[in-house]
């Protein structure tokens, strides 16, 4: 959900980012509305290019059940909701009351609202009450919680399902040794190492927006 304000590099060349955006036709007005709202708050969004990847990857595995750890006011949920279809479900988790209020206001009257179940609770609390496996799980919370959430989510995702995470390139900061006080960079570096070391996962990182990790659960 956060991003490094002092990031040393731009992961995606701005000209390429503009080019990719221009390739796409006009999208749903709700996306524009959510992005304008995010700008007024200085809220870090996953970004459209990463969002389109979330949608495409979920579609490719015929995903119908999606779990989000850290949903904000529902920006990334928009892409998942399109992918899961009218019979699918996106479970959003977010502790902050004002984010749920913003979500309800922004999605009011929109067809995708019925595909989203929004919990004003932490991801671990919601997971504890879930038994049926997910097709896709997405992590976008405080970086210190990434590894812990990964460990909790792997057993909850079906074999062949996807575990995705935002900010895994962290503005390029992961490529250098973290400063002593930079706990967030160390947390992302530890998470990335964990992804590639876990024998249950096959992982890669897409250099989209701030880095989107993609892991398939193999065992």
Query: How many domains is the backbone divided into?
Result: 1
Query: Based on helices, strands and strand pairing, what is the structural class?
Result: alpha/beta
Number of helices: 8
The CATH first-level class comes to Alpha Beta
Trace the largest sheet across and list its strands.
Answer: 3-2-1-4-5-7-6
The largest β sheet comes out as: 7 strands, mixed
SSE run: HHHEHEHEHEHEHEE
CATH superfamily: Vaccinia Virus protein VP39
Head-to-tail CA distance between termini: 28 Å
Low-confidence stretches: none
**Overall pLDDT metric:** 94
Shape: globular
Helix content class: 25-40%
Tell me what the CATH architecture is. 3-Layer(aba) Sandwich
Q: Approximately what portion of the residues adopt beta-strand conformation? A: 15-25%
CATH fold label: Rossmann fold
Radius of gyration: 16 Å
Architecture overview:
By secondary structure, the chain is of the alpha/beta class. It has a single domain, classed as Vaccinia Virus protein VP39 (Rossmann fold, 3-Layer(aba) Sandwich), CATH 3.40.50.150. 39% of the residues lie in helices and 19% in strands. It has eight helices and seven strands. The protein has a seven-stranded mixed beta sheet with strand order 3-2-1-4-5-7-6, with helices on both faces. The protein is globular and about 45 Å long. The chain starts with 13 loop residues before the first helix and ends with a strand. The model has no long low-confidence stretch (mean pLDDT 94).
């Amino acid at each position: 959900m956060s991003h490094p304000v002092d990031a040393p590099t731009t992961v995606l060349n701005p000209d390429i980012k503009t080019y990719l955006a221009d390739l796409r036709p006009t999208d749903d007005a709700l996306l524009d509305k959510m992005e304008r709202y995010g700008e007024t708050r200085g809220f870090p969004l996953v970004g459209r290019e990463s969002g389109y990847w979330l949608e495409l990857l979920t579609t490719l595995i015929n995903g119908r059940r999606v779990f989000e750890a850290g949903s904000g006011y529902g920006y990334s949920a928009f892409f998942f909701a399109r992918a899961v279809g009218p019979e699918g479900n996106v479970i959003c988790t977010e502790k902050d009351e004002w984010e749920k209020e913003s979500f309800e206001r922004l999605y009011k009257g929109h067809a995708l609202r019925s595909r989203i179940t929004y919990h004003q609770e932490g991801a671990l609390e919601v997971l504890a009450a879930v038994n049926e496996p997910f097709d896709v799980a997405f992590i976008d919370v405080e970086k210190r919680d990434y590894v812990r959430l990964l460990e909790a989510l792997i057993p909850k995702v079906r074999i062949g399902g996807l575990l995705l995470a935002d900010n895994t390139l962290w503005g390029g900061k992961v490529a250098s040794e973290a400063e002593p006080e930079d706990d967030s960079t160390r947390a992302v570096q530890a998470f990335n190492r964990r992804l590639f070391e876990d024998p249950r996962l096959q992982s890669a990182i897409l250099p989209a927006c701030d880095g989107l990790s993609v892991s398939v659960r193999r065992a």
